[in-house]
Structures are given as structure tokens and as C-alpha cells.
């Protein structure tokens, strides 16, 4: 018996020795107990979170993005009419505010940085605008270079996310029910509108976020209002609609609203979050056609899943459940893409998870 206990203790120590903790940053809404941006430790072996620490106070820093060199962090905040803040990541793991600039629209909800770390774009849901900024060498932001107003007399814009892809800027606009494409100017640093809709969307779909394959061939757009994913293929002649597919279980009958979307690192599987059904949907992806096959809808073990992320090992998926103040952690079966609930960690109003 003593030998058995000794062996178990040795095995436990060996397991601990191979554990690796990495930083995870958490953006929140501060209308409850949260005070700003937090940093947590994630164990990539055990799949557990720990050591939650407030690293800067801010008003509802609801979306976060790193600079490519990870020396700086950018956050959309709801201070005043909306701002975007630049922070320096210090050696003591706290954030030092560099500067804040006007987001040029109410309720900024998404921020992205280009691959060179020279440009930043903010999406303003309430104002329906997209604001573009230069990033200085010290990580600070200039005042806005351009502000795109996408509302028309017929439809009010609700810009929800934007990404730099090659020399283009793509914008998911829930209010206009479109994914806009802006093209980089031949002269100067600005962008100009190329097309107001890369593909035809279903009525009242409400594009929210999108993810793109590494070769930029397939776009997967998650639609908040009708709980669907639109698949589009990039061709030499523009974009071609592949399909629209529901994110909900066939037996679900209530109201639900999609939030976030991510591809697995090997691009074999696609994941999306459903608020209302309170689930993560899992699709098997066909590499050649881009089409999706739904294989799982699994409970998030919480209420109102907003943003979620896959850890750098590709072994775990973490979901921020805003209304139940918890982060649910799932094991990913890399062979079939399916999820299995592992554990939960308490966190105040989690809405953005960033490794």
C-alpha cells in the first residue's frame, strides 16, 4: 500500500512538472462586479484557469486585441460616447495606459489590428461607423484617419466587427445585413468602399462576426438575428455564395442569437456560440467545397455565451458566459472535433477572452 501511494505521489509530481501556465486576458462589461480588464493563468495541461487579477480599471472594455509583437493591448471602452484605449503590457503584468482616442461612434464593440501592427480599426455598433487609426511606434494611437458612416436613409448601420485581410478591410454590419469590402487606396494610407455586400444574405440575418481560412478562400459569417452561418467562397471573379446553415439544434424552439465564430487550428471544424439555446455548435468542414455539416450542439453550462476562444494547444475551448459570470472549459477531441465539458471558473461578466 505504501508503495502504491508513493508511486501515485511521484506520478502527481511528474504531471505538475509538465504543466504550463500561460496568460489569458479577459475583457468585461462593468455594469456589475467587474472593474475592467483581468489577467488569468491557464494551465494548458490540466485545462484549468486560476489567479484572476485586475490589471487595469476601465469602463466596459468589451473587446481586446494584441499588437503583433504582443507588447501592446488595445480595448474598446464605453467611456463617454465611446473610446479605444492603447495599453503597454508591463513586465509586472499590469497594463499602462498610453492614450485613448474617440471611437467616433456609440457602443464600440470590436477592435482589430493589421498584421504589420501599423493600423487599427474599431467597429461602433451604436453609431454604425467604422473608424481607422494609425499606430505609432510607441504603440499609441493617432486620431482617426477615416470614419466610414454606413447608415442610409433606408437602413441604420450597426457595425459589429472588422478585419484586415491582405489589402482589404472587411466589415460585418448587422444593421445593413451586409459584409462590406473596403479596398486600400493606390495612393495614401486610406481605404475606399469596393462593394456593399460580398454575397447576398438571407433577410434579417444580421452578420456579427466572421472567420476566414488561412488561404483566404472561404469566409464563414455568423449571423446574430436568424442564428445561421453564411459560407462564401473567394474566387477570381469575386465572392460566390456557398450556403446558409442553421446553428441551432433541430429540436430547439425558443429565441436565440448568435455571437462568436472560430475555426479549429487545422481548419477541419468550425465552432459558433448561441445565446438563448446557450450552446456551442460544432460543424465538420469540407476542405474543397467549404460546406458545413452540423455534428454537435453542446450546452455551455451557463447563460448568454458571448465570445469564446481556443487555447494555443488546440486542446481546449473556453466560453465566456456573461449572465452567469463564469468561463466554461471544454476538451476538444481533435479527431472528430466534438466538445466535452471539463470545468468552470468564476469570472465577472466575461465577454472577451484573448490568448
UniProtKB/TrEMBL annotation:
A Pfam family reported for this protein in Swiss-Prot or TrEMBL: Lactonase
Gene Ontology MF, one: 6-phosphogluconolactonase activity
Protein name: Lactonase family protein
Protein family membership: Belongs to the cycloisomerase 2 family.
Species annotation: Aestuariibaculum suncheonense
A GO biological process held by the record: glucose metabolic process
Keyword Acyltransferase recorded: no
SUPFAM superfamilies: C-terminal (heme d1) domain of cytochrome cd1-nitrite reductase
Keyword annotations: Carbohydrate metabolism, Glucose metabolism
Claim: Transport is one of the keywords in the record: no
Domain of life (superkingdom): Bacteria
Amino acid at each position: 500500500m505504501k508503495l502504491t501511494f508513493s508511486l501515485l505521489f511521484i506520478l502527481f509530481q511528474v504531471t505538475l512538472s509538465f504543466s504550463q501556465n500561460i496568460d489569458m486576458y479577459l475583457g468585461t462589461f462593468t455594469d456589475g462586479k467587474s472593474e475592467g480588464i483581468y489577467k488569468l493563468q491557464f494551465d494548458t495541461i490540466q485545462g484549468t484557469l486560476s489567479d484572476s487579477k485586475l490589471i487595469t480599471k476601465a469602463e466596459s472594455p468589451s473587446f481586446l486585441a494584441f499588437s503583433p509583437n504582443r507588447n501592446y493591448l488595445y480595448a474598446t471602452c464605453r467611456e463617454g460616447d465611446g473610446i479605444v484605449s492603447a495599453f503597454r503590457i508591463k513586465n509586472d503584468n499590469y497594463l499602462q495606459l498610453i492614450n485613448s482616442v474617440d471611437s467616433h461612434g456609440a457602443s464600440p464593440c470590436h477592435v482589430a489590428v493589421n498584421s504589420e501592427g501599423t493600423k487599427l480599426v474599431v467597429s461602433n455598433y451604436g453609431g454604425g461607423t467604422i473608424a481607422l487609426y494609425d499606430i505609432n511606434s510607441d504603440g499609441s494611437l493617432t486620431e482617426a484617419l477615416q470614419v466610414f458612416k454606413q447608415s442610409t436613409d433606408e437602413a441604420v448601420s450597426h457595425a459589429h466587427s472588422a478585419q484586415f485581410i491582405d489589402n482589404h478591410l472587411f466589415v460585418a454590419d448587422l444593421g445593413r445585413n451586409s459584409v462590406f469590402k473596403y479596398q486600400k487606396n493606390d495612393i495614401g494610407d486610406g481605404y475606399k468602399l469596393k462593394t456593399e455586400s460580398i454575397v447576398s444574405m438571407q433577410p434579417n440575418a444580421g452578420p456579427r462576426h466572421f472567420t476566414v481560412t488561412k488561404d483566404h478562400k472561404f469566409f464563414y459569417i455568423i449571423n446574430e438575428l436568424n442564428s445561421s452561418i453564411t459560407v462564401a467562397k473567394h474566387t477570381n471573379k469575386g465572392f460566390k455564395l456557398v450556403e446558409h446553415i442553421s446553428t441551432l439544434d433541430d429540436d430547439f424552439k425558443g429565441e436565440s442569437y448568435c455571437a462568436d465564430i472560430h475555426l479549429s487550428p487545422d481548419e477541419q471544424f468550425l465552432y459558433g456560440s448561441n445565446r438563448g439555446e446557450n450552446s456551442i455548435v460544432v460543424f465538420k468542414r469540407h476542405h474543397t467545397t467549404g460546406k458545413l455539416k452540423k455534428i454537435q450542439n453542446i450546452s455551455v453550462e451557463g447563460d448568454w455565451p458571448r465570445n469564446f476562444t481556443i487555447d494555443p494547444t488546440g486542446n481546449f475551448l473556453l466560453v465566456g458566459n456573461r449572465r452567469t459570470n463564469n468561463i466554461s472549459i471544454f476538451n476538444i477531441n481533435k479527431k472528430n472535433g466534438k466538445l466535452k465539458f471539463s470545468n468552470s471558473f468564476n469570472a465577472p461578466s466575461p465577454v472577451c477572452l484573448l490568448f
